[in-house]
Amino acid sequence: MFKRFTCFVLTLCLAAGLTLTPVLASEATGAEITEAPEEDGPSTDASNGVTVTVRIENSFMGQEQTLLPPTEVTLESDGDTKANVYNALIATCGTSAVFTESEYGSFLSGIMGVTDETGMYSWMFAVNNAIPEVGMDAYELNDGDEVVFYFVSWEHADYAYFTPGYATISDKDSVTLNLSGVDFMEGEYPVEGAQLVIVSDSPTTRDLKYTDAEGNVELSFMNPGEYLISAVLTNDDGINTISHPYCLITVEGDASAPESPEPELTTDSGLEGVDTQPEETPDVPLAIVEPTGEPAEEPAEPIDFGAIEPMPMPTAPVTYDEKNNTLNVYGADVNLSGVQVIFENNELYLPLRAVAEALGLVVTWDGAASVAIVQVPGADDIRLNAAEALAKGEIKFVGNHIYVPSAYVISNYNAVR
After folding, report:
1. Which helix (H) or strand (E) holds 412?
2. Which residues is 54 bridged to in the sheet?
3. How far is residue 181's CA from residue 178's CA, in Å, rounded to a whole number?
4. Which of 34, 36, 35 shows the shortest CA–CA distance to 248?
5. Are 57 and 67 in contact (CB under 8 A)?
6. What are 50's strand-pairing partners?
7. Cα–Cα distance for residue pair 57/36, rounded to 1 Å
8. ∠ CA 233-235-238 to the nearest 5 degrees?
9. I need a labelling partner for 257 at 20 to 30 A (CA). Which of 203, 334, 351, 359 fits?
10. What is the pTM of this model?
11. What Å distances lie between residue 6 and 151, 162, 179, 240, CA to CA?
12. Rounded Cα–Cα distance for residues 118 and 83 (Å)
């Protein structure tokens, strides 16, 4: 705890910058924002100032997401205008970057509306996957530098990053990622046991993947597309202990697969001079050949389908459209923001809280007993002993979210409706 508190104080001083000169966002000039690179990593252009890449990550439990994907910004470095971390932040975020005065100086307290209301989280920054030892306005940037602002638990979490951060592979190949953590006091280490989170518009393998003792994990993909890879590593209190890492993998189709040849019309068959186009089919009725000796049956009267009421199709209690990432439970659309649907061993695992709230129910958490409680109006509460169910392999934890099998949702819904 002492190490973490010391880390927090030092990081607070360095991330905010005790020597930070107050500069209004409107005074940051000479910055040009461009689209994120599509190559295997950031590209730079030194012809017009200093070009760097800025990314912003939120690791608050249950809200883990990339707030700003890698975005190139070109900063001028002339006279009083410095190409430093502070000006890179202002150039990309403007007035959404909020600073607060404290006994340690002015520190970064909010970006894009993400602020700490608990006293447990703070904004930090890293450059080229290292934690600088100076403040934002004192760290001058060079062409190609990568700046990451990340929101984490200052007591429990370390900065984390993937190697490689970008990759392009074939859909026939696999890629191995390494996840490293950076402890402010003790340096870099491999992150073991982190669960990968894959975000994509295309389907991919749904097996749960975890980093090994060396921080490595191997991934393969079934379909071409872009896949955003991140990871979470939670402690017993459900707090994510690493920042939100980022890796963009582009999967291309196998261009080496032979294409079917187009049929060619040749005249090597001795039909030179003969019209090879088929004649028009004569407009005559087709004859129905009956077996020998069997009399032909009279044709049945046509059925008037207009006179038959269509049978209503039963509505599935749980439907998931993987292509559009939409989930419907008993006619209610489930909000999948910040959560996912997991396929494993032919089972569909659903986010418990999101499903319950879609059905108008309230979920509370008894941390002392590790029990999730679903409050059902006019009926007994549904109590799920998460620790016991997890030990039996009946549920899953991703971040601080509980995922239950679709059969669990159906059986409990039928019991209380």
Report:
1. helix 406-416
2. 71, 147
3. 10
4. 36
5. yes
6. 75
7. 15
8. 95
9. 203
10. 0.55
11. 18, 26, 25, 20
12. 33
pLDDT at 218 over 80: yes
Could you tell me which of 341, 334, 324 has the C-alpha nearest to residue 405? 341
What CA–CA distance (Å, rounded) separates 15 from 5? Answer: 15
Q: How far apart are CA 211 and CA 179, in angstroms?
A: 7
The answer to whether 45 and 32 have CB atoms below 8 angstroms apart is: no
pLDDT tens-place string over residues 236-281 = 877 889 999 999 999 998 655 544 444 343 334 343 444 444 444 4
Rounded CA-CA distance 121/8 in Å is: 10
- Closest among 353, 358, 355, 359 to 372, alpha carbons compared: 353
The DSSP secondary structure of 134-190, one letter per residue, reads: S-TTT-B--TT-EEEEEEEETTT-BEEEEESSEEEEETT-EEEEEEEEEETTTEEEE
Max Cα–Cα distance, the chain, nearest Å: 106
Closest to 11 in 3D by CA, of 133, 188, 187, 106: 133
Task: Return the DSSP state at 353.
Answer: H
Confidence of residue 56 (pLDDT cuts 50, 70, 90): very high
Among residues 194, 172, 87, 180, which one has the least CA distance to residue 137?
Answer: 87
Cα gap 307→318, rounded to integer Å: 33
Domains and CATH numbers, the chain: 2-155 (2.170.130.30), 161-252 (2.60.40.3450), 323-416 (3.30.457)
Task: Walk across the sheet containing 396-398 and list its strands.
Answer: 342-344, 347-351, 401-405, 396-398
